[in-house]
Amino acid sequence: MAWANQDKCAIVGVGATDYYVRGKSWPRTINDMAGEAILKACEDAGISIRDIDGFAYYSTAGAGYLDRFDSASLMETLGMPHISFSATLTSGGGGCVGAIGLATAGLVNEDCRYAVTLMALQQLPQHRLGVVFGAAPPSPENSFLQPAGLVGPGHLMSMLARRHMHLYGTTQDAFGEIVMATRANTANRPKAIRKAPLSKVEYEASPMLADPLRRLDFCLETDGAVAVITTTMDRARDCRQRPAVVHACAHGGAREWGRAFAWMGMPDPWFASSGHKFTADRIWAQSGLKAKDMDVALLYDHFSPMVLMQLEDYGFCEKGEGGDYVLSEKIRYDPATRRGVGGGVPVNTHGGNLNEAYIIGMTHVVEAVEQVRGSAINQVEDCEFALASGGPAALPVSSLILRRA
Amino acid sequence: MSGPIKYGPARVLPGEQIRITTNPDTAPFWEAAKARRLTACQCADCGRFRMPPSPYCPHCSSREKRWPTLPGAGTVFSYVVCNKNPANGEPYVYVPVVVDLDGAPGARLNGNLTGCDADDVRIGMQVAVEWTPIQDGWVLPNFRKA
């Protein structure tokens, strides 16, 4: 299966605000932060805001959990002369990297010339995700979930983690290793929220919030905005930076995953998975590549066990062997050799959502771009292919391979 | 594994803090629960079960439904141990469980498990439905260790 849009577009600009601990971005507004990210991405690409004529969102154009982007407002207030593409993937953060595929659709169709994908997140007290879930008025659907006290994403994800432990003997030690291994990647990152090295003792002292998951298995709650600009290869070559070529991209998923942890009806082996096998198989089929061909993997890490289950779904290891794979330190990045450890592919060299910042997945796209540009802070030696993922969540989830130009 | 943490008795969340809503697809389930009768949505054509109730059978696209009386028992498919009441953040040990329902292959129900210490809950444990009155006169199916 070839993908018609393979290598036809590239990400040419990335921009981000500082990352703030939840709520600390105030008195900035969410549109202030979104504007900064977009303008910085334009600067990075060496283009004008007036060149942007497309929006390819995800999360149903959500800006955080309660706000929503509006292309009309953004283009009018930022001074874009016109727009000719404005579209979003549905559901939530699972579509994060799939939005780049959506951008390629608009670009290859010549609907637009430069498409921006962005996320801005500002978690004022009433905007926290856990609170948003819990405070949502009962709906006929969540009346089958919420009364059980499954009110936050951590509760839901723990249910999957527990099943994985039961089926495959996975341990909390493996979840801890994921947090510690990726924490080790933030010590040298000025913008990261959690930079101090994490010991096993400290991990085990972290409060149990939804057993088997501790607070440190939950990602950060942060504020900030991130934007990236995608364009066609011919235009990309004229931009300021080395293009990050969009080599493969897929969004969607299998019916057995469906609404996932908002459903809990997934049969084995889907239940104790990341729901990514469908899109993983698609990008491997699109590209002829496999997990072992990746030089770095930026895996959506809202909860540590979901990294482990993605390692299985993408084929970095066999199903059920994620625990052993992780405990053999194969997701670590070795700064001395600038490569993986023990033949593994380094995961979340930016520290991920668990340690650097959580902007609903966009930081993974930025890191993937910087890795194939060769400008990452924790640069992987000779990085040709970077994998990035969005989700695990209700469908669509998404998968992306960027390639060095 | 709960490690060194000792949780003690698993309690169901207080019914007075729980609200539900229904629609025409889900109302028969909740009306049955009000009469303390456990049911699940079954396709009247192909016989397969689905939960939560929805307009179409995902297997044969039929809109015809049946609401058979189930044995009221099941098996823990997975669980989480929580230690704070989500309504107020106060210490409160409860165990959300995903339960495979006896007599309704493929249908699962989420509830709280009681009748044992949270530390002793295991996947595969047999449970029986237990009814918890909630707001607006509705009744919620929870579970007790069998």
Topology:
The complex is a heterodimer of chains A (about 400) and B (about 150).
Chain A: E1 9-16, E2 20-21, H1 30-45, E3 54-57, E4 62-63, E5 67-68, H2 71-78, E6 85-88, H3 98-108, E7 114-121, H4 129-135, H5 153-168, H6 172-183, H7 200-205, E8 208-211, E9 213-214, E10 222-232, H8 233-236, E11 244-252, H9 277-287, E12 296-298, H10 304-314, H11 322-327, E13 333-334, E14 339-340, H12 352-355, H13 362-373, E15 385-390, E16 397-404
Parallel strand pairs in A: 3-6, 3-7, 12-15
Antiparallel strand pairs in A: 1-10, 1-11, 2-10, 4-5, 7-10, 8-9, 11-16, 13-14, 15-16
Chain B: H1 27-34, E1 41-43, E2 49-50, E3 65-66, E4 73-79, E5 81-84, E6 91-94, E7 96-101, E8 108-114, E9 126-133, E10 139-145
Strand content of chain A: 15-25%
| Mean pLDDT value of chain A | 96
Helix tally of chain A equals 13
Note the main sheet of chain B. Answer: 5 strands, mixed, barrel
Intertermini distance of chain A: 22 Å
Determine the most extensive contact between two protein chains: A-B, 38 and 42 residues
* Coarse morphology of chain A: globular
Order of helices and strands of chain B: HEEEEEEEEEE
How much strand content do the residues of chain B show?
25-35%
CA-based gyration radius of chain B:
16 Å
Strand order of the largest sheet of chain B: 4-7-8-10-9
For this structure, what is the CATH homologous superfamily of chain A? Thiolase/Chalcone synthase
Q: What form of chain B results from the Cα inertia axes?
A: globular
CATH topology of chain A: Peroxisomal Thiolase, Chain A, domain 1
Cα distance, first to last residue of chain B?
Answer: 21 Å
Major pleated sheet of chain A = 10 strands, mixed
How many domain modules of chain B? 1
